[in-house]
Amino acid sequence: MGPLVVPALRQRLPRLQPFHRLQVILQHLNMSRSADSSAEVLLEKKGCAAVITLNRPKALNSLNISMIRQIYPQLKRWEQDPETFLIIIKGTGGKAFCAGGDIRAITEAGRAGDRLTQDFFREEYILNNAVGTCRKPYVALIDGITMGGGVGLSVHGHFRVATEKTVFAMPETAIGLFPDVGGGYFLPRLSGKTGCFLALTGFRLKGRDIQRAGIATHFIEAEKVAALEKDLTELKSPSKENVADLLDSYHTKCKLDQEKEFILGEHMDKINSLFSASSMEEIVQNLKQDGSPFALKQLEIIAKMSPTSLKITLRQLREGASLSLQDVLTMEYRLSQACMRGHDFYEGVRAVLIDKDQSPKWKPATLEEVTDEFLDSCFKSLGSNDLKLQ
Hints:
The chain is built from 18 helices and 10 strands. The chain is of the alpha/beta class.
């Protein structure tokens, strides 16, 4: 509660009946929330645009279920509103757009047998689909860390604007998960085997390279983001083409890192050949046989990942390459629930995020022990519990 609220409450509360006392407290809480912008997500109209601001800077704007439950219905309302011409999504704090989903909360829920493990993924994927099918131009200002759940809030929209501060990764195989939020849709559609490489290794792309890889549509200087947002909101009844023209003009004027080569450029031939195998065992074999410093580095990274996650991810991307976004999200919901039933997700979160010993004990411990029968069970329909998308 804000410091200005407390003295006023102290004076009034003793004179009130218990029920009215509660009402006053709630009113003051709401006032202080809007006054000090402590709400986890801000939903505002600015000029011709609707603006979604992820507002958990101390948690790097990680996405929790209460944020999803605020964003989704408002996004659907704005989509129908004739006075709303585009939707902008951004993060506060200067460090992150959104560093991912609230993994700790999901882990605790899974250990306690709480249904958040179902609800979070179901509602998150429904929101990802709403972004992917949004009829209004959707502009994600991905300034700062953009990983996991943050990718799901941005990559399926029409426009993604990266800056020199943007860091992209899908690091899920390191915590016994898989690159979800529609990763099975957008990753296999990147050039060559780039998506497969990013998914299996969790490799981090930075700045202009995110646009060069095809994940961002535009690249501008971080110091220009506020001016771009202002210009977007001041457009007069803009069409999608008008929005694209404005973004293109900012992108074209940005000369930052223009001369630098794409970080994966010199390795693309190797990535395309080594990661084109149809099984994880073959990919590992390819990397060993290649023996170059780049290949051996990837081998070392992959050896640390959950064998189960690696096999799920490779099949997810292979299947997702020919599926619609809706069918990918349905598939990924099945996979999310398989991970919630399993061992590696809880162990990965313990090792990476809680104890931080970086020494997960995966079960099974080797790729060979993850059977095709087990993988089939992960991809199997959940019947009436399957994800349903409108």
